[in-house]
Amino acid sequence: MNGGIWVLLLSGILGFRVGMIGFPDWQVAVETAQVLAGLVDYPPDNVFYIYHTKLWTSLHHVLALGLLAGVKEITLSLVVSGILGMLTFQALAMFVYALSRDVLLSVGAAALIFLTRSTDYGVVYPIFLLGTEHTYGVVGLSLCVLVVGLLGAGWYRTGAMLAGIAPCIHPSLGVWTGGIVALAILSDFRWLRGELRPALPWFLAGCGVTLASLLIQLTLVYHSPEGMARLSPQDLSSFVRLWDGHRSAVNVRHAGVLLNFASLALSLVWLEFFATDLPRPSQFLLRISAAGALVALALIPLSWISPDRLPTALLVLMPGRYLNFAAMTFAAMLIGLAGSRRDIWSRAVLLFVTCGLLAGDRSMMWESLDVGRVLQSGVGRVLQFKTRPTYVMGVAAFLAIAAAASRKWGHRHYGTTAYAATIAVLVTVVLMTLHQEQPQSGAHFSDRTNDVFFADVAARPGVLVVAGDLHLVQLRTRRPVLVDSGALDTVMYSLETGAAMQRILRDVYSLDLLHPPPDAVGSGRIPPLAHRAAWESYPPEKWRDIRRTFGVTQVLAYADWSLNLPVVAQSRRLLLYDIPDR
Q1: From CA 488, how far away is CA 170, in angstroms rounded?
Q2: Taking the complete model, does pTM exceed 0.70, yes or no?
């Protein structure tokens, strides 16, 4: 059996198990699928409804079919959590395999990178691997990395088809992936044109899937509202600057930016001096990595320009997030390049980077060990030594280049012992990964199907107003909400709702778009304490006016709040208030 198949199979099983059992979470994509499946009834001019119908990804279409088939939201979220783990582990493992052609190393490296949090260097958008509700960020970036890994492993047809499908999974990252692959092809067009020609029909087939998905979205899903007004250019600029941290100015000293420079440098050095030691598909991967880092770095100055001077479409694309490709793959690149050589020095570098990342200050290993108890017994002080993964990766990059150069000078002693030690460490890492779990409260996966309070909320009619920071209420209750107060940046994907959202902020939450509270700056959400005093001071007449104006019937707030409204349901954490119509 082809080694790549073993990599996909083993890493996929491991990732699915870790994602579904160890790090499950609610998935926001399931929430939008509820609307597409017709399970939540929204007014046609509701800002959250317009967002649901406008955001395009085939994930929604597939998940909506699951809901229509009777699958519960909790079950779908668990399955999607497993799929996210599978995709993430396969992407990282295939990236390593494309360079090293080593099955054991590749599967173990994926677990190592996850366990040590060696990818936690998102610049303006966090890099999620597992244990998050943000479905799109995980799927988009992991699919991008998997496409590149497949191409680098010589799986041109499979990689090309996935590249064609990627835009219907995550439009911006999918298109960007195609762009950097095209740029890499142009860098060696004479050879790659002939090499990739058999994959062209597969790429076109993938593009056909994307086109079909887009037609479904435009004809059956997208709701075009009438009479909606966008934010003025000045107000949109203020929202981006003050509320939306994902589109903030990029700090060139950020670790994620430095990893892009390192990825560009390492790829170019390897291509220039050591390319002949790698298969041509592996060289193709390095070309794509160099192109990705180069384009991402070139886009940084755009983030320094005032948002009102940039095209709106460019703001929506969030160009700063493209820096995350190199930030996610740099550790995999190091391990893959070190693993591609069999000499003693490269094996030593491989052992160094493995142990160094495992001992890093972000590693989950330290959470698994009761370090305090160990130290009280006078044992294990050395184990408490921690260092930054970026330092480890930086030193390892220089050592890898030196090791590659030493082989050119004639030192070809095999490092069997160092390799065996590396594999032994990685086996331990895999076992540790299988025992890792994300701590969650017992009420985390509670919704209308297993919680009396949420069932009571679900049984009542009308649109809900939710207190700031209460997120995924629709997902738990199948009740429409006025606005998702935990994700205001959704307005960037439904710009026509901007003026309505501004009005909601002002008239319902007593917040000023141009003067957000300090804890709202860059968060993209409504902090609960920012409007608690206002809500508690509202007289019943004010609430009735909100009901008439915005078509809402009830308010969901925290249990320690006291609103001038009758309570109709309560739990230990939340209260449901009724807004009388007269």
Answers
A1: 20
A2: yes
pLDDT, mean of residues 457-469? 95
Give one word for 343, left, alpha or beta, with left for phi > 0 and alpha for psi -120 to 50: beta
Dihedral, 60, 63, 64, 65 alpha carbons, nearest 10? 130
Contact 426, 357 (CB under 8 A): no
DSSP secondary structure of 117-166: TTT---SSS----SS-S-HHHHHHHHHHHHHHHHHHTT-HHHHHHHHHHH
Give me the pLDDT at residue 210, please.
Answer: 98
Query: For 300, how many CA atoms within 13 A lie in the half-sphere containing its CB?
Result: 19
Contact 111, 332 (CB under 8 A): no
- Which amino acid, residue 383? L
Surface-to-core class of residue 64, CB atoms within 10 Å of its CB (0-12 exposed, 13-18 middle, 19+ buried): buried
pLDDT of residue 386: 59
For residues 577 and 568, what is the distance between their CA atoms, to the nearest angstrom?
A: 6
Q: Exposure string (b/e) for 264-291, b if CB count within 10 Å is 16 or more?
A: bebbbbbbeebeeebeebbbbbbbbbbb
Sorted by where each begins, the domain ranges of the chain are 3-434, 452-578
Dihedral sign (CA 234, 237, 242, 244): positive
